[in-house]
């Protein structure tokens, strides 16, 4: 009861004790005697002020007469000129200099500075903008015009310059001048935004006819769908329905096959819909669906469905469209059954409908039209009918046995003694692998190698076996590959690379030896390079040296000599003994580098002797060889002897002779 009495309705029936703010208990001071020296807050602030270090400020300079002013100006100009001499390319220095001259009201000097800055880099449009802004700010209108005119002449592709110039003329009320500038700009065929700015400019002054003329030029310059749609909307906005329709019709004539034609047809149909011309809109939709590929007509089809929901019967229209297109394709394939593009379009139509039996029927009819001649160029389009048929059966119909039958019949049909298609063999094998039928895939690829061996088939078969880790099969396949194409350097290199990856160095070397012993090779330089790189990577420098010598017996090409010399310069003679002291190791390394350099010099000497005696006509090659030698000598450092090569370098000679004329010597 007591608590109810103490409660206060104004405090929400809480007691005063419950609503008290409890402050933290103050700290108890044990020593309460006053300090001997008392410090006031005022004294603390005064001391802080006294101990503060004085701020260093430059002395204020008061200019009292014209002599002092001219001295000050001379000094400042000298500072700026010195700064410019040091950092000529720093644009901010030029801007500060010009603005200072402007602040001194010496506008001729300011202009001179701006002109000098533009001489340094006239391509920087920001300099032109600042220069023109200064002229406009100080109301030198003709000077500003001059600057803008030069800027747009030198930098016609910088839109900002044109916009600023036009804005200035418009602010001055010089509409004719602004129009003239726009015309100059349009002669450069700028982007869409520039044309739209010109049109908006004319519309601000109610020049509808002029705006229409600009739109005509715009759609000629930028014949894009968006441009035509903007033109038609402009006519519609001005209440010219006939002209708007005419614009759309012209756009359809020109851009019916464009990638963005879908949006054009949609806009045209919506325009007719707004004009309450539903039959016209329906016809436009039909025409568009007949002419635009199915893949690009998704939005169009959706709009058409919405239109039909509002004004007609969707199913009937859809069937009519499909039936009409089916009739067109039937007519085309009846006229020319060997026009495989028509068959592809017809099949695509049936696949979009999704009737399996009908799709298979069209495929069977299409593949029955075998090319009349056994020449590959006639079969290249036809074979894709089989490939698409097989992929349809596998992916869409998901009928494995039918897919296998399609591939089997296709392979049986191709005249492999005349030509073959590696793509078909590989697709059939990959299909079997996807069905986890490895034996079937091997059978197909083996059959391919037996009937119509091709590079692609060998490469893919080897890749599959390598992924499975069947090295012996890979070796057998490489052997068959090389029996079929012994001149194929790629096959030899890859075979050797395989053996090397298995650390079978002797096998790899034997393969390279067999390869270079072949009487004919398609790219021997790559094979020799691969063999030499292999020996270098194995650290067999002596064998590499012998290889280079054998290569030089076959060809004395400049690149071979240079490569041999570079190898000699970089080849170390032997591995270092780690137990040798550091000093002896350095000496040994120096001796080895010297030996390498001497070997390289011998190669260069031999090469120059060959070019001098056996091929004296190849003077350019000899000069290039000497340049390489000189570069080598100069790159080595202390061991190199540049003078040794300089003595052999060709010298330029100037020969003087008398000029004889009819009157005697003329000089």
UniProtKB/TrEMBL annotation:
It comes from Daucus carota subsp. sativus. Its main location: nucleus. GO terms for biological process: spliceosomal complex assembly. The keyword Nucleotide-binding does not apply. InterPro entries: HAT, HAT_Syf1-like_N, HAT_Syf1_CNRKL1_C, Syf1-like, TPR-like_helical_dom_sf. Transmembrane segments: none annotated. Belongs to the crooked-neck family. It is found in: Nucleus. Involved in pre-mRNA splicing and cell cycle progression. Required for the spliceosome assembly and initiation of the DNA replication. Keywords: mRNA processing, mRNA splicing, Nucleus, Repeat, Spliceosome. Residues 242-321, 397-546 form the Pre-mRNA-splicing factor Syf1/CRNKL1-like C-terminal HAT-repeats domain. This is Suppressor of forked domain-containing protein. One of its GO terms (cellular component) is precatalytic spliceosome. Residues 79-223 form the Pre-mRNA-splicing factor Syf1-like N-terminal HAT-repeats domain. SMART domains: HAT. The keyword Repeat applies.
